[in-house]
């Protein structure tokens, strides 16, 4: 089974999102191992294409890519400064007064950033907390101040304008670089761009970046093919019975590889070229059964993710989002970078 990752497409997606926000610096979010695609390859490729600002969720993710990037790459850690963390060479995004005071006590003179909560109520300082430390925090020279939008994938959602107004109220006149937009916010237009945009999923070919180039192709090997008579069952729970005589191929990946079990019985397909072959029966841990009756010859590999069935299509079928499909892709695939 093979996961093909098109680095040129990631770079093209980054350039396209950067072009949406020409007055801002376009960072790259490479948390969760670059959304499952391999931060050790993706981050240096983005650096070579000119990206200098990177975001990870956790200190260990930052530690993993720090040696792979030249010193002028800025690696921002969204979880901020947790007690005991080794933040050498990293920039923590400080989310609370507690993190701010810890960081300034332990890392005086070292770079830091600030996250404010503009309404999502997930991470960042509340307006009153910020007001209380604002003078001291600005005097310490934050690299930038950021916040995050909860509903940027819904352009008409009233929370977007409300969060924008809240962010402006807290930061106008600060004289510090500001960042509000991830992929969705970048597409909301110039009001949301400020100085740094932080696209993640759009780089990797996911919604809400409708014009994204596909990045991932996932093809699975056919281990075995068999004829099944009308009325016979296939797979765990005997949830599927052949409606007629048919030919079933068993391929070599399953839910342990991030092919969600909730895809079972929902109309997902594997593709042989342009030919769609339905998944039948339940997705097992390591195996999937596919109705290949319509194929004249069964190829060595069938494609699950590709142009015919992009990550967001698969996500819709499974009842989730492209982000979860990407970050669930397991570690058992042979990865090829194009
Ligand atoms: C994950 C994340 C991003 C990137 O979001 P996408 O929707 O993937 O573009 C940006 N900023 C923060 C704070 C995040 O948590």
TrEMBL record:
GO terms for molecular function: alanine racemase activity; pyridoxal phosphate binding. It comes from the Bacteria. GO terms for cellular component: cytosol. CDD domains: PLPDE_III_AR (cd00430). Transmembrane segments: none annotated. Substrate binds at residues 122, 285. Pathway: Amino-acid biosynthesis; D-alanine biosynthesis; D-alanine from L-alanine: step 1/1. Keywords: Isomerase, Pyridoxal phosphate. Pfam families: Ala_racemase_C (PF00842), Ala_racemase_N (PF01168). It catalyses: L-alanine = D-alanine. PROSITE patterns: ALANINE_RACEMASE. Residues 215-338 form the Alanine racemase C-terminal domain. Its cofactor is pyridoxal 5'-phosphate. The active site is at residues 31, 236. Its EC number is 5.1.1.1. One of its GO terms (biological process) is D-alanine biosynthetic process. The modification N6-(pyridoxal phosphate)lysine is found at residue 31. Catalyzes the interconversion of L-alanine and D-alanine. May also act on other amino acids. Belongs to the alanine racemase family. This is Alanine racemase. The gene is alr.
């Amino acid at each position: 089974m093979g996961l093909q990752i098109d680095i040129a497409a990631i770079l093209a997606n980054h350039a396209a999102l950067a072009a949406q926000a020409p007055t801002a610096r376009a960072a790259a979010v490479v948390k969760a191992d670059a959304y499952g695609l391999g931060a050790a390859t993706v981050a240096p490729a983005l650096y070579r294409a000119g990206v200098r600002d990177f975001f990870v969720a956790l200190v260990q993710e930052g530690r993993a890519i720090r040696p792979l990037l030249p010193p002028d790459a800025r690696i921002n850690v969204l979880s901020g400064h947790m007690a005991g963390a080794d933040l050498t060479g990293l920039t923590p995004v400080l989310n609370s007064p507690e993190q701010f005071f810890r960081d300034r006590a332990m890392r005086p003179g070292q770079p830091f950033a600030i996250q404010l909560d503009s309404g999502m109520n997930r991470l960042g300082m509340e307006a009153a907390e910020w007001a209380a430390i604002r003078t001291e925090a600005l005097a310490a020279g934050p690299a930038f101040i950021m916040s995050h939008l909860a509903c940027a994938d819904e352009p008409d959602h009233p929370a977007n304008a409300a969060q924008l107004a809240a962010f402006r109220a807290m930061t106008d006149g600060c004289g510090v670089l500001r960042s509000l937009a991830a992929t969705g916010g970048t597409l909301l237009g110039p009001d949301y761009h400020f100085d740094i945009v932080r696209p993640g999923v759009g780089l990797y070919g996911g919604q809400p970046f409708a014009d994204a180039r596909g990045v991932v192709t996932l093809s699975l090997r056919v281990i075995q093919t068999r004829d099944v008579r009308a009325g016979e069952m296939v797979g765990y729970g005997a949830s599927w019975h052949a409606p007629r005589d048919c030919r079933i191929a068993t391929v070599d990946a399953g839910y342990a590889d991030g092919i969600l079990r909730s895809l079972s019985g929902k109309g997902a397909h594997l593709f042989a070229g342009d030919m769609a072959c339905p998944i039948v029966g339940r997705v097992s841990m390591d195996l999937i059964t596919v109705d290949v009756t319509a194929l004249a010859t069964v190829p060595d590999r069938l494609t699950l993710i590709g142009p015919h069935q992009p990550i967001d299509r698969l996500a819709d079928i499974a009842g989730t989002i492209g982000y979860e499909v990407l970050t669930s892709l397991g570690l058992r695939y042979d990865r090829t970078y194009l």
